[in-house]
Write a structure and sequence with these properties.
The complex is a heterodimer of chains A (450) and B (269). Chain A is of the alpha/beta class and 450 residues long. Chain A has helices at residues 13-19, 31-46, 63-66, 125-139, 150-157, 397-404, 410-426, 432-449; strands at 71-72, 94-99, 102-103, 121-124, 163-167, 177-183, 188-190, 193-198, 203-212, 227-236, 241-249, 255-264, 269-276, 281-290, 295-304, 309-318, 324-333, 338-347, 355-364, 370-379, 385-393. Chain A has two domains: 51-395, no CATH class; 396-450, no CATH class. Helices cover 21% and strands 36% of the residues of chain A. Chain A is globular. Residues 1-12 of chain A have low confidence and may be disordered. Chain B has helices at 48-56, 80-86, 103-117, 125-138, 156-170, 186-199, 214-218, 238-247, 250-268; strands spanning 8-19, 22-33, 37-41, 61-70, 73-74, 88-91, 98-102, 149-150, 174-178, 205-209, 223-228, 231-236. In chain B, the strands form three sheets. In chain B, strands 6-9-10-3-11-12 form a six-stranded mixed β-sheet, with helices on both faces. In chain B, helix 3 packs across helix 4 and helix 5 runs parallel beside helix 6 (186-199). The mean pLDDT of chain B is 93. Chains A and B meet through helix 6 and helix 7 of A and helix 2, strand 7 and helix 3 of B.
Chain lengths: 450, 269
């Protein structure tokens, strides 16, 4: 990695510090992976950290993050199965666990490496490179645009392991796959990576779950301060169906930045629900690219309080005709928290008969809570149906009065309505136990704010 | 029914109230005893619905004068939820839709809150389910109704039935039905009226706010009051409603005005 030396410039101090450990990464036996890393490091020479002057970051001040000099996690904490029992999702047949970005085989469920007769792969990158190298090479680093994105480039520069799921042609996975990313160390950067390939006609549900495991020895005020910089790539071949559930429940001092790129083949179907609960600053970029006749539903909920900032940027790119997209994004903002939503829907020239509907709905619980929402339609075709809208408001006083007129106290009435606002998104999660747990979380979180 | 030994449930004296600074109620007097059914009629804008909302405690209405005693307590000392727990119930003219809150959850929360207040046992979800289904049969409500969000996507008739179901669960001392008949077809009107009649007993009282005599064929009132410009200007029995149906309201106002002039003339003399 001789290129590393070339980036030593004062302006790049933050990135420089982070990249200092990069050359210590053991080289991959595969040349194309080393080439990907090298290219990412090269791009970091050119890319700058975003500031409020960048259009894509103008509401999201990450100076709190870039002031800190965390170093990359270079190994995982040793955990036992009992430590993570609280995170188990009973419906999931397969669980793949990563601790601070490193695969933890002892925590992953037994079925995680099974190929069975169906040829399904749920494993970590080094294990499957030998058998599925070609399939992985065709997708890894090909969807998430790290060349223009400093955080995706940082993740790619440290590409060493990844959760890999490959569902072969016409295979439908009955049970969801649980990808669990556990943060355990403070003041480190971890770079989780996921790759999901759904071959033509296949179907699956994947749960991408970011959690924190608080160490008893940590001081209260310094708990959970770490930086998760994740990249996920999901490729759906023709007629494939993927349900993607993403839960970000990191500690309240964490920084979480994630880039997810989804590519939909012809007539494929992608349904995603993302829920952001944790982190002091979180940013989720979701880019969805639709081929002809593809359909997607991209829903999200941010439930934040205190001084949290949660930013969701989505881009739904109708590149070809007859695509359908649906999006409902909700933010519940309490305390002095700040939510950002930027939802771009792009209908390219020739993407006729596109049918797109987007709605951003925001609930402010206090006078200090703040939301910036920006639905953004860019249409270059002339035969399309596109709708979008945004609302920002407080709880409806008529609804509150109706509940009170039936004996419910003011706080119970408000909690119930707040919960109901968020439940509309949670209900779209097709995994019963997870849905139930999240509903409970939302109920507790809304109650604690009143 | 009018009873010799009926207790006074509601006593309204000189009630004045404003909405957005405009006075709607202008010195209203009204007394309700247990066992009675009262109908309040009157033209649009006479203040009927305002009166109903003021009794329930809606914050958009400001009480500027007069007093209301409910079972001897100052009603205005109680927050809306406390009034509900004390036994005041308003069936809304336009029941509110609450997406995301299951009807079953809402009904149980409401029922248990009021039960707790009365020192009675609360019901768990299973027990409540049995209990509420019995009540739903009376109102011919389909079972899937429990799983739906509160009033969301309900037809006008379903919303009104839901109101009466809540009344059946909460067993109020004083029920105020604000234009419960509006938007109901004949069948729904019959079902809702039967439900109300079954809930009426010697210990509670019902105030029907309505435009039309039609409802009063099903729920027979002991008293019919005509409201005009924020006051009750005439009180009669159920025959008054029939007379209003054929003659309209103008003659009542004219009569009231004439009586007022007579009073003024007498006073002057």
């Amino acid at each position: 990695m001789s290129t590393v030396t070339s980036i030593r410039r004062p302006a790049a101090g933050y990135l420089e510090t982070l990249l200092a450990g990069q050359p210590q990464l053991p080289a991959s036996p595969l040349a194309w992976i080393n080439a990907l890393r090298a290219e990412a490091v090269n791009r970091l020479d050119v890319l700058k950290l975003p500031t409020l002057r960048d259009e894509e970051w103008r509401f999201t001040d990450i100076s709190r993050l870039t002031k800190l000099s965390f170093s990359p996690a270079l190994g995982a904490t040793c955990l036992e199965t009992a430590d993570i029992a609280q995170f188990h999702i009973e419906e999931a047949s397969t669980r793949l666990v990563f601790v601070d970005g490193f695969h933890a085989p002892q925590l992953s469920s037994a079925a995680s490496c099974s190929n069975g007769d169906s040829g399904v792969v749920v494993s970590n990158l080094p294990k499957v490179l030998a058998t599925h190298g070609a399939a992985i090479e065709a997708h890894l680093g090909r969807h998430a645009a790290f060349r223009d994105n400093v955080f995706a480039a940082l993740n790619t520069a440290f590409l060493h392991d990844a959760a890999v799921i490959v569902v072969p042609r016409n295979v439908a996975l009955a049970a969801p796959v649980h990808l669990l990313f556990i943060a355990t160390q403070k003041e480190v950067v971890s770079t989780p990576r996921c790759l999901v390939v759904a071959e033509s006609g296949s179907a699956m549900t994947v749960i991408e779950d970011y959690v924190v495991l608080t160490q008893p020895r940590w001081q209260k005020e310094e708990e959970e301060a770490h930086f998760t910089n994740a990249v996920t790539e999901i490729a759906l071949e023709d007629n494939a169906r993927v349900n993607h559930i993403r839960i970000q429940r990191e500690g309240n001092n964490a920084f979480h930045i994630a880039n997810c790129a989804v590519s939909l083949g012809r007539s494929s179907n992608y349904q995603s629900v993302s829920v952001a609960l944790g982190a002091q600053i979180s940013r989720y970029n979701l880019d969805v690219l639709l081929a002809e006749g593809a359909e997607c539903a991209v829903d999200g909920l941010a439930l934040i309080a205190a001084n949290q900032l949660a930013d969701t940027h989505t881009c739904i790119d109708h590149a070809q005709p007859h695509g359908v997209s649906r999006q409902l994004h909700k933010c519940i903002v309490g305390g002095s928290a700040h939510a950002v939503f930027n939802g771009k829907v792009l209908v390219r020239q020739g993407a006729q008969r596109t049918d797109s509907a987007q709605s951003s709905r925001n609930l402010l619980l206090t006078g200090r809570a703040h939301v910036d929402t920006k639905p953004q339609l860019e249409i270059f075709a002339d035969d399309v149906k596109c709708a979008h809208g945004a609302t920002i408001g407080q709880l409806d006083s008529e609804e509150v009065f109706y509940l009170k007129s039936r004996g419910l106290s003011d706080s119970v009435a408000r909690n119930l309505l707040t919960y109901a606002f968020g439940a509309e998104i949670i209900e779209r999660i097709p995994v019963a136990s997870l849905k139930q747990r999240l509903e409970q979380t939302v109920l507790e979180q809304t109650s604690s704010q009143s | 029914m009018i009873m010799q030994d009926g207790r006074t449930l509601l006593e309204v004296r000189g009630l004045r109230a404003t909405v957005n600074g405009i006075e709607i109620l202008k010195g209203l007097d009204f007394t309700v005893k247990s066992g009675e059914v009262h109908a309040i009629m009157g033209p649009n804008g006479s203040g009927k619905s305002t009166f109903a909302k003021v009794l329930a405690g809606h914050t958009a209405y400001e009480v500027t004068g007069g007093s209301v005693l409910f079972e001897g307590r100052n009603l205005f000392d109680l927050a809306p939820e406390e009034r509900a727990r004390a036994g005041v119930f308003l069936a809304f003219q336009y029941p509110i839709e609450i997406p995301g809150v299951a009807n079953s959850q809402f009904l149980r929360l409401s029922y248990n809150t009021v039960q707790a207040q009365r020192g009675k046992e609360e019901l768990d979800p299973l027990e409540f389910d049995d209990f509420v289904r019995e009540k739903m049969k009376l109102l011919e409500i389909s079972p899937d109704f429990l799983d739906r969000s509160v009033n969301e996507g309900f037809s006008g008739g379903e919303k009104k039935r839901n109101e009466i179901l809540q009344m059946a669960l909460l067993e109020p001392r004083l029920a105020i039905l604000d234009e419960t008949d509006s938007g109901l077809d004949i069948d729904a009107l019959r079902i809702v009226s039967q439900g109300v009649n079954q809930l009426a007993n010697k210990d509670n009282a019902i105030i029907l706010v309505t435009h039309y005599q039609r409802l009063l064929n099903y729920i027979v009132p002991d008293f019919v009051h005509v409201m005009e410009s924020g006051r009750i200007i005439k009180t009669g029995d159920k025959d008054l409603a029939r007379e209003l149906e054929t003659r309209g309201y103008d003659w009542v106002a004219a009569e009231h005005l004439a009586a007022g002039e007579t009073r003024v003339a007498k006073g002057a003399a």
